[in-house]
Every structure is written in structure tokens, then in C-alpha cells.
Amino acid sequence: MTWEVVIGIETHVELQTQSKMFCRCPVDFGAEPNTVTCPVCLGLPGALPVPNGLAVEWTIALGLAIGCSVASDSLFHLNIYFYADLPKNYQISQFDLPLCVRGHLDIETDEGAARIGVTRVHLEEDTGKSTHVGASGRIHASEATLLDFNRSGVPLMEVVSEPDISSPEQARAYAQELRAIVLALGISDARLEEGSLRFDGNVSLRPEGSSELGTKVEVKNMNSLRSLHRALAFEIERQGAVLDAGEAVAQETRHWDEAAGRTESGRSKEESSDYRYFPEPDLLPLHVEDELIDRLRSGLPELPASRRSRYRDLGLEPAATSLLGREADLGDLFDSAVEAGASARGAANWLTGEVVAYLRRTGGTLGDLPLTGGHIAELTAMTEGGDLSATAAKEVLAGVMAGEGGPRGVAESRDLLQMSDASALGEAVDAVLGDNPGELERLRSGEDRLVGFLVGKVMQATGGKADPKAVTEIIRSRASGGD
Q: Domain containing 452 — which CATH number?
């Protein structure tokens, strides 16, 4: 039997509002455990929730960015279940009347272009955080569980895709594109490793050509795009083996174990009826005015697809176009550098090469660096103008990112500026040729590879400050009998 893969993705986005979804507690992920709580987010008797207006607007903005229709009327429900990290024993969410419906994302993979439908975008509140104490960090082997309710009540936006995804590659592309849009809107830092962006995958297999969906398995605990791809690939293979053996796939929730490279059974999968949804009696229905929708639509920033198209028109390589298009802060810095006079390719090479590598090494963010578009433009001009060698330019950029000043100032303080004076370069070349008369004669006899050897000697003699292009021209001139 040949099996067809059907995947849907549920994405949870923690919104970077100043306060929580239904109370005034600040959103502070660095606070000491259980210090950012109040009667509302802890569900104490008599506490009344009030919706966060900015969270509502940001959810509508995301919906508009992915082509959704915005509901004029929406409603909050109680999603009732009992778990240790849910202090109220219910979660305020949206059930049958979400804010946004029927959107889509267009993606590109090696398999080709695809349009992935988005069923809904709705608002809810986050749960608390459970830390399982033990060697494995997993609940089934823990010695104790610690509960932190600081995260309880943080605005959480959920984006639910249609089951239009047919491979782990498409799932990863969908996740990347959605993350890029979230970053472009500035509504979340979208850090998977910190849980501010979380993906759950719903996976099923069905006979090729069939229109009936197979048994769905939800996969959780995928904290990176790599994990998402690996977990879905494993689950597809696992379900295929079960079906090939003539057995039935169990409807359940499974957790991805990154270290073991496999999914593990968690609990049987619930249906919506298990949560006993009913309208939240303390919250009035939301009514969205057309004027608000128009304001939010007109205020949308340039989205990743548009950025990529613009960068392709500038002649950037596909890899640079993709990275600058999906990382909004990096793309903004690139635009600033080009506006300051940098060549598009030069600025892209520095940003997607040395700058990204530096951030990966240090674990920092672009906002942590004292790096401006003007710095990139100046560095590009100095390199292309011959003031800096490629090696020295990398050292200068590292100094700029470390806060030592602008490129020229760093180059001067570190004595990295190239020798550009023709007379001084000529003297350095003549000294090297005088010390290597045999190599000069062989060069004159046609051994052209010796040019590189002699250039290296001059670079060594000048401490790497000589312009290798100018040195090469002088050596060739001397070899041909010129002054």
C-alpha cells in the first residue's frame, strides 16, 4: 500500500504585550517564579477578567497579513480541563466564533510551490509552566514537578492550518513563513527555544488517492524547526509501519524526544466535547468595527514575500534573499545599509555571513549589537575601495560589534588599514624581489604561479597591510621590466 501524508499545524504565539490577556500583570519572562500573578490570572473567587485590547488588534493584524476574513463579532469561551499548570481548571479561549477565518500561506520548497490554507486565528490565554525535576526532565520519570504561574494568562494567539501539508519539508516551510510574518509584525520575539512560538503537528496517513482522512496523531514538544522536521518524519515512518503491519493507528498525543530521535506516547487524544466549551459569562462578545480593520490593514508592514521579491530584484543570491526576507531585523539593517550607500551584494554578504555567524556564536540578538546600516556601508566602502583587506575587514567588523566604534576608527586603532601609497608599496615589493632574485627570474621565464608566492612574501613583510591587488600589479610590472 502506498500511503499519502496529511499534516496540519497548530501554532501558538505568545504576544509581546506589556500586560497579560485578562489582567494588568506585566508580561515578564525573567521574573522569579510565581511573582507575576494576581487574583485574575490565578482564578481566585470574585476576580473578573478584562480583555487586552492590543492583543485583539495584533491577532486581527496577523489574520489580515495571511488573507483571513475578520469576524465582526467574536466570543470567548471556557475551555475546561484539569491539569496542574492550569490554576483556574479552565482556559479562556475562542471556540466556534474566532476572530479570523479562512486565510492562507504560500510556500516554496524543492517539491514546488504550495498554498496552505489557514482555518482560523483566535485568542486565548497561556497556561503556567511545569518543570519536571529529574534526570530526564520528563513527567513519567520525574521526582517532583515545580509550577510557575508567571506565564499563566499571557496572551496566546493560535493559528490553525488546514490539513493541506503533505511532507515534513512543507511543514518546515510553512512554519518558517508564519514565523517570519510574526516577526515582521513585531508582535512576538517568536523564539522556539524559549517557547514563545510553539508548533503542534497533527499527522495522519491514508491510502493514496483516498479522500477520507486517517486516524490523527498530535505531536508536541518540537522546540525548533529542525525538531519539527525530524519529529514529523519519524511519526510518518512510525504510522506507515503500523499500517503496513495491518494494525490500527491509535488516536493519541505523542511527545517528541529530541535526544532519542523518536515520538513517545503521551495520552489518548481528546475531542472538543471533552473540554465542555461554553461562553465565558464574565466577558461580553467582541465587536470589531470596520474602521479598526481598515486602520490595521493600512498599518501592515512590508511582509516577507514582498521583501523577498524586492531583494531578488536587487540581484541577491537565493540564500541571502531567503534569510533577509524572513528575519525582519536583519532585513531592516540591510535596507538601512543600502540606503547609506552600501552595495546590495556587499551588505548582504556581511550580514548573512559574518554578522549571523557572530550572533550564533554569542547567542545574542541583532538588537544587542551597536551595529548600524551606516557601519555596514562604511565597511563595504573601505573593503571595496582597498582600505581594508578581506581578512582585516572581518576583524574590524568584530570590533564594531564589540562596541569599539565605527569601522574606520576600529581599523585605525587596530592598525589594520592597508598600505595604499604607491611609493611605499613599491619599496616593499622591491625589497622582497631583492631577497628572492631566483624566483623573479623564474617568473620572467614564464612561471606565473610565482606571483602568488611573491605577493605572499610582501604581505608577510608588511604585516598584511599591503593591498594584494596593487602588489600583484607592481610585481607583474617589475617582472616585465617596468619601474
A: 1.10.10.410
Q: What's the total number of domains in the chain?
A: 3
- Domain boundaries, position 451: 422-479
Same domain, 313 and 263: no
How far is CA 230 from each of CA 132, 141, 236, 256, 448, rounded to the nearest angstrom? 24, 24, 10, 9, 51
Sign of CA dihedral 217, 218, 223, 228: positive
User: What is the pTM for the complete model shown?
Assistant: 0.85
The C-alpha cell at 75 is: 466570543
Q: Are residues 145 and 283 in the same domain?
A: yes
Q: Is residue 105 a part of any domain in this protein?
A: yes
- Whether 133 and 238 map to the same domain: the answer is yes
Among 363, 392, 413, residue at a domain's last position: 413
Q: Are strands 262-268 and 100-109 parallel, antiparallel or unpaired?
A: unpaired
Sign of CA dihedral 189, 295, 92, 213: negative
Query: Could you read off the pLDDT tens digit of each residue along the chain, which spans 483 residues?
Result: 899 999 999 999 999 999 999 999 999 888 999 999 999 999 999 999 999 999 999 999 999 999 999 999 999 999 888 888 889 889 999 988 999 999 999 999 998 999 999 999 999 999 999 888 876 666 666 788 899 999 999 999 999 999 999 999 999 999 999 999 999 999 999 999 888 999 999 999 999 999 999 999 999 989 899 999 999 999 999 999 999 999 999 999 999 999 999 999 887 656 655 667 888 999 999 999 999 999 999 999 999 999 999 999 999 999 999 999 999 999 999 999 999 999 999 999 999 999 999 999 998 889 899 999 999 999 999 998 888 888 889 999 999 999 999 999 999 999 888 877 678 888 889 999 999 999 989 998 888 989 999 999 988 888 777 878 888 989 999 888 765
> 323 near 330, Cβ under 8 Å?
yes
Instruction: Say if 297 falls within a structural domain.
Output: no
**Cα angle 316, 400, 394; round to 5:** 55
Report the chain's terminal Cα–Cα distance, integer Å: 79
Considering the domain architecture, whether residues 75 and 219 belong to the same structural domain is answered as yes
Same domain assignment for residues 356 and 465: no
* Cα gap 75→82, rounded to integer Å: 22
Q: Are residues 396 and 285 in the same domain?
A: no
Last residue of a domain, one of 395, 413, 431: 413
Task: Tell me: do 80 and 194 sit in the same domain.
Answer: yes
- Domain match, 392 and 464 both: no
